[in-house]
Structure formats: C-alpha cells, structure tokens
Design brief:
Elements (H helix, E strand, L loop, with lengths): L2 E2 L10 H8 L7 H11 L12 H13 L4 H11 L8 H8 L10 H6 L8 H10 L4 H9 L15 H14 L8 E5 L1 H4 L3 H12 L6 H17 L15 E4 L13 E5 H9 L6 H17 L10 H21 L8 H13 L2 H4 L8 H16 L10 H15 L7
Parallel strand pairs: 2-4
Antiparallel strand pairs: 1-3, 3-4
C-alpha cells in the first residue's frame, strides 16, 4: 500500500511519546519510564492494580469486553494503515529518553511537553495501552469525508483558508484529483458520541459488526474515562489530533475502500500557531500533503533506484518542492517567496531531532534548500503564467536532488 502520514506530529498516537511528553510534569523517574517502555511492548499486559479503585474497575470492565486477540488486531490495523508512520516519532521519543538523541529542544518539543501537564499518569498509560489516542485518526481516515459543513481548526478558524487552498491545489496540478478529499480531524467530536466512536472501536479491536452493542458499550466507557481527566478536555486536547497526513490505497492489493484523502487535525493547527507558525505554515502543510498525491498519481514514489532512508528522503523533499512551487506560483497561492521560505525554514527546524535521524525526511537545511529551489523555479520563470506539468517539475527536481542533499546542505 502506498500511504504516508507525513508532516504528522501525531503526539497522541505514538505511545511512548504521548506519555513521555507528560512525564516532565510528573517528575518521572527511571521506574516510570520503564513502565512506559514495558507497556509499549507488543503483546504486553497492563497491570490494572496500579490504578485507583474506580479506574481499576473500569479498566477490568474494558479488558473483559475485548476479544482475546485484541492487541494483535490493534497492532495489525495500525501497521496496515500506517497509523504510527510519522516523521516526528524521534522527536517524541526524545521527550521520553532525551539521552538517546543528540539534539536541542525545539519550540514544538517544548510545546508538546506542556499539553498533558498535571494529568493522571496511570490513566494516560491505560489509554495509551488501549490505543485510545489513535481513535480520532481512525475516525478521520475511515469515516471522515469532504463536506461543505466541515470546519478546520478547533474553532473553525482555518476553514476558509484551507478549503480555498484545497480547491486551488486541485486546479493547479495536472493530475486526477477529483477524488481527493480534504478532511478535518476533531478529537472532541469523536469522544462526544458513543455512536460515532463505536465503529472505530470495532475496527481497531476486531469486534464483529453484528456485535455492535459490545462496541457501543466500550465506546461509552472510553468517553467516561476521558472525561474523568480535565486535562484531556473531553478529547479536545491537541494531543489527540496533533497530526496531518496524506493517504491513498492506490496499488494496494487489499484495499479497504478508503478514498484518497488529506487529513488535517485540529492539534497540528494549534501547535503551529503556538510555536509562532500560524501564518503560512498550515497552507504549507496542506500543499506538501497534496504534493504526495501528485506523486501517487504519477507513480513517483518507487520510481527510483534509491532504497531505505535515501528513498524516503527523496519522496519528502520532492513533496516539499511541489508544495512550495504551488505556494509561490502566481497561479497558485501567489505568496511572497521570502515570506513562505521564512515560515518554512522555521517549520523545518521544529523537528531537527527527527531530521537528523537515519533517513525519513531530510535535514532542515535540505528541506529548506528544496523549498528555496522550488520557489526560484516559480519566480525565475520567463512566463509567470505558465504552470509546469507535474512530470516536468519532477524531471527538474530529480536533476537537482544531488545538489539538494550534498553534504553542505546538512551542516
């Protein structure tokens, strides 16, 4: 399956990272970290005796209702649909185990560390163990759809901006894009309705559809537990939706019937604003994700002799370039190139721990170099009204790639 959760900041999805960001506020020690690591292990069991009597009763109730192999089903679903495929995993892991990574704190990592301050650690650990932080992602991925009634941003503040850009992207690029849906992800909405949450529960844990009452009962318990912790804001805490991703089943031999889509979570939009990137960064994220769909439609993902980290880096740098070309082109967003590049440079820097890990998306300098090159292609064109065909743009990018990733660009 060709799928990507790029630009994902899914802090609520990656298990150890979700809890790790809460640890500083709880003065976590090595024992606590070991508990998180143990609970993260496939097939591990959760020790409910550590919970308060009320939580223990609820936890035992939940575990009794789940299928015997629910953990295997949960892990298989996450692997198939790329739920944990995120470039930000190293950043989140470094919050939990900072000694494992040679990097400085970034504004994003500092922001992540505040989101769950003061929350009940054992409750968070149990929610992680069950995969509850994944649920808004599954809801948007499987059950979300593009609609005129959709809103983007926790208060709908990005609705006009992203809806308009989505339409412009479809007009700009010469691919079949009518079937690409741009879908919001709202955590609070998912956890306010047992009827909405129940299909997600069934999907994640492999509960047969004919046993809907069991899924509905579990959904009610999850909602109750989440509302026990005020810090979680009934699911509106940005941790649940700190994510944006592009998805396709193109080429998948076993498709689930999910349409091509881009999901934009409330949490990622809140995070970008919180770290001073609320100007052009949301549009850059959407343009980058649409760049992946250009790659999907043109079969550019695997069209290379590169393998491993170098292959992944090429894909992401190309999406950066596609996105920036659109943002700065006179027939795209027509944004000032300096304004875009200043914003993107800051955006690429917020996750430098991830960028310097083996592969994935390239270093901040490499990503900025790719974006700068794309802006120059738009700005320096003799015919400012001409949009390069997407395959021609790729041809230019492939020729430029060795220069973009040369050692000077990583220093």
């Amino acid at each position: 399956m060709k799928k990507t959760l790029t630009w994902a900041v899914t802090a609520g999805i990656a298990a150890t990272c979700t809890l790790g960001a809460a640890l500083p506020a709880m003065a976590a020690d090595d024992t606590t970290s070991a508990a998180v690591t143990s609970a993260a292990a496939p097939g591990s069991a959760f020790d409910t005796s550590r919970l308060s009597p009320e939580l223990k009763a609820l936890a035992d109730q939940v575990l009794a209702k789940l299928p015997a192999d629910w953990q295997q089903r949960r892990d298989a679903a996450a692997a198939k649909y790329g739920i944990h495929d995120t470039q930000w995993a190293d950043v989140r892991n470094s919050v939990l185990n900072p000694g494992d990574y040679q990097c400085q704190n970034t504004a994003l990592r500092d922001y992540q560390g505040t989101l769950l301050q003061g929350a009940n650690f054992e409750l968070l650990l149990f929610l992680y163990f069950l995969g509850v932080f994944d649920m808004p992602t599954y809801d948007a991925l499987f059950f979300g759809s593009e609609s005129k009634s959709n809103t983007f941003g926790v208060n709908g503040e990005y609705t006009n901006e992203l809806t308009s850009e989505g339409k412009d992207l479809k007009k700009f690029w010469d691919i079949n894009s009518d079937d690409i849906q741009i879908v919001p992800m709202h955590g609070g909405e998912v956890f306010s309705s047992p009827e909405r949450l129940a299909p997600v529960v069934s999907l994640m844990y492999g509960i047969p559809k004919e046993n809907n009452q069991a899924a509905l009962a579990l959904a009610k318990v999850f909602i109750y537990v989440i509302n026990l912790e005020p810090v979680l804001q009934g699911g509106d805490n940005p941790f649940f939706t700190l994510n944006a991703f592009a998805f396709t089943e193109k080429g998948d031999p076993d498709p689930a019937g999910i349409s091509d889509r881009i999901v934009m979570g409330d949490g990622i939009l809140q995070a970008l604003k919180a770290v001073g990137l609320g100007d052009t960064a949301p549009r850059a994220v959407l343009a980058h994700e649409f760049g992946h769909h250009v790659q999907y439609e043109n079969n550019l993902i695997d069209n290379t002799t590169l393998t491993g980290p170098e292959a992944s880096r090429r894909v992401e740098l190309m999406a950066d370039a596609y996105g920036t070309y659109f943002l700065t082109h006179s027939r795209g967003e027509a944004l000032n190139a300096k304004r875009v590049l200043d914003s993107e440079k800051s955006l690429y820097e917020v996750g430098d721990c991830s960028f310097t890990s083996p592969g994935h998306h390239g270093t901040p300098n490499q990503r900025f170099t790719a974006a700068s090159w794309a802006a120059s292609v738009a700005d320096d064109a003799a015919n400012q009204g001409h949009i390069l065909p997407s395959l021609k743009f790729d041809e230019l990018f492939e020729a430029k790639l060795p220069e973009i990733v040369k050692p000077d660009a990583t220093n």
